[in-house]
Amino acid sequence: MNTVVTSREEILAASRELIRQKGLPALSVRSVASACGVSVGSIYNYFDSKADLFSAAVESVWHEIFHQGDDAAAFQDTLACIAWMYSRMEDGSRRYPGFFTLHALSSMQGDKVDGRQRMAKAWRHIVDELCGVLRRDAGIRPDAFDGQITVERLADTILSLMISALFRGEYDAGAVIEIVRRVLY
Question: Do the beta carbons of residue 119 and residue 55 sit within 8 Å?
């Protein structure tokens, strides 16, 4: 048995693989330790508790799904960004079956305060990125934003539509793109 895990990232990579192969319920300190070939105690050198490991692993999956990578062009145009986000959701759903729904349900339970905070942080990051794209998009007509429709409100609305699509398992961004096109361009 390996007595030392080389990094926190190695543990998170093993956690993502467990979630990918067996689903979110399979994630435990013991299963991650086994996947890494280390003792349970070694995991606690990097994570204070099971909840800390769980939260970090979930955040790691969200990051992997929505990591920008080489798709920088998608973040200059609002419609391209929306299409990119829906394609990332579809890819994430395929790679991590049931992850979105199980994560949402587990984070909504009353004793999962940290999970709810991390989910809110991930969603806030998505809204902030959308706001940035909306502000950089040179094609948006000058009078598109006013007191009723602000950059932040539109980004929140787009995120709400995305979350709804996640729960329904529908990844066709066509209707959202058309709505945004009619509102902004």
Answer: no
